[in-house]
Amino acid sequence: MMRKIIKLLVIALTVSGYSQNYKITYLKSSNGNLIENQDAILIYCNDVKTLITTEKTINHKAEFPFEQTVINREKEFYSQITNLNENEIISTVDSTSLKKQTFELLNETKKILGYNCKKAKTIINSNTIELWYTNDLKIKGSPTILGQNLGLVLEMVRNGNFIIKAIKIEKLKSFPDVSQSKKNVDMLTYKDLVWKSRFTTIPIFKNQVINFSNESVSNDSILRFANGTIAVRKVKFPKINLGSQIFADVTEQSNGDAYDRTGSFFIIPTDTKLSFLDGLKNGVKALPIYSNSNGKEYQGVVRTNDYNPIIEMMRFFTPFGIKQYNYLELKDKTWQDKVFYRQDISDLASLLSEKEVWIGINIGNYDKGGHMVSANITIHNEETIGKNKTIVPLFCTNNIMEMAGQEYGTMFNNDKGLEIDFSLEKPLNNCKLRYITTGHGGWENGDEFVPKKNTVLLDGKEVFSLVPWRQDCGSYRLYNPASGNFQNGLSSSDYSRANWCPGTVTNPNYIELGNLPAGNHTIQIKIPQGLPEGSSFSSWNVSGVLIGE
After folding, report:
1. Looking at the predicted structure, is the pLDDT value of residue 178 above 90?
2. Residue 347 and residue 388: Cα distance in Å, rounded?
3. What is the arrangement of strands in the sheet containing 339-344, beginning at the earlier edge strand?
């Protein structure tokens, strides 16, 4: 059926001798103002066909992907054709949508470009659309698919503030050519391919097992560490235009582990003599030590002259047993099959653009089956003007090498807390600290379940404080099939926590620090960490990156 329709489309585009051809030019305005530097919408039409395109497309100046739509009046179908790139063109056909459009025909009339126009109205996805159309030219067409059978639509108004309006009508002798596609797909596939072509996807991990097993081994592209709980690979990134938006996403399912676990999707800086990669390859003893006189040594958690700690793009938390334990039934609850985490990491663009970067992912667990993850970074070009950022990694107490002996972040039991000395070779303006914090200690009096104030000091002066706390954990119950249920009617995943919930991402806090002069500086983090009880203890995973211009 689709081939037959496409054949009819080609015939419709190539047969000559139709009645008068017209070209109509439209411009868009918003809130009464003409949109600047816009690509004018063009439609070409006669009594049997309509082409919707743009000025840049016709003049071969459009950026990929670009789409054109052809309406066949005789057969009442339309074809959408998109050039994804120089070598790939796809198309789809819809033979039902035009017939399903409904409008309220109103009595209002007005003239546009000298033609008598009538008014029609419809509501689509809670948007009110008003269309002004004329029958004076005995042809049909519209700047969008909507209203194609009313007449010639010369003005469309959405919600009273966005307008597409005809500014010129010209007579032509011929129709422009339209690229023909050899790849015809269904409408859903077409929309997906067009959407994904609008941004760049960098696959990082695909169905990667993160587990605890001495059988976890590296391969040619992915290195495994800490008994399989860490996966790392080197990734090459294209040039990222200033102002572009960058997102990190992770998809997770339980592959055996039933518990809520800390996860991290991170960058390993390698621009210093020593890096976290050395610790992964040679053991935690290869990493520099931080101590604050509490009797413990913390490996690789703070910046030194020769070392930069990891940079967490995203801190996430697995739910209780999603997918693997979906057989645990509760009435009126349909468990989710996977959890999808996504976070804006645009501030870290300068670490990625045109570079080869070591990217890692970790989920702390002691289960042989562990977890299954996929991860991507997507780049979305923007036309806004941005500034290149300077990134200074400062600290990360998230012990992602826990299963290889890295110490928990328990340094906050000392009044000194976490103190980081760093030096700037030149002034850094408009500085902010990208600060991620989560409290841990999974018993009644542990810091996971007790609100604790975080205080941030710069050069001895308090610049920020907050009590990191999440009270919306019950919203994610359907991601947590293996969550334990209590006699009070709550499940473990319902309980409020120290800035995290099972099945969520923890958002960074951006702390404004102003302009920092060149020279030496100190950042200090203080948290009133709770005392241990028996074998149970509290800890805090905090990470900080200085961002400036």
Report:
1. no
2. 9
3. 200-210, 371-380, 245-254, 339-344
pLDDT (tens digit, 9 = 90+) per residue, 493-521? Answer: 999 999 999 999 999 999 999 999 999 99
Give the number of other Cβ atoms within 10 Å of residue 515's Cβ.
11
Quick one: residue 526, left, alpha or beta (phi over 0 = left, psi -120 to 50 = alpha)? beta
What backbone torsions phi and psi does residue 422 show, to the nearest 5 degrees? -145, 160
Reported as a pLDDT band with limits 50, 70 and 90, residue 38 is: very high
Q: How far apart are CA 139 and CA 149, in angstroms?
A: 9
Please name every residue paired with 485 in a beta bridge, in sequence order, or none if there are none.
Answer: 491
Residue 521, C-beta contacts closer than 8 angstroms, at least 6 positions apart: 421, 422, 423, 424, 458, 459
DSSP-derived letter for residue 274 is: B
Q: Largest Cα–Cα distance in the chain?
A: 92
Cα distance from N-terminal residue to C-terminal residue, the chain: 58
Token digits of residue 320: 């209780």
Q: Which two tokens stand for residue 541?
A: 């995973």
Rounded to whole angstroms, the Cα distance separating 304 from 395 reads: 10
Beta bridge partners of 362: 230, 264
* Token pair in block for residue 482: 């293996």
Strands (E), 269-349: 289-290, 298-299, 311-317, 339-344
CB environment 484-495: b (16+ within 10 A), e (fewer): eeeeeeebbbbb
Closest CA to 116 of 151, 70, 75, 65: 151
Measured CA to CA, the distance from residue 540 to residue 439 in angstroms comes to: 5
Q: Please tell me the distance from the alpha carbon of residue 479 to that of residue 500, in angstroms, as a whole number.
A: 14
> Which pLDDT score is estimated for 63?
93
Buried b / exposed e over 103-134, threshold 16 CB at 10 Å, is beeeeeeeebeebebbbbeeeeeeeebbbbbb
Contacts of 451 (CB under 8 A, 6+ apart): 467, 469, 498
Print the SS3 string covering 398-411: CCCCHHHCCCCCCH
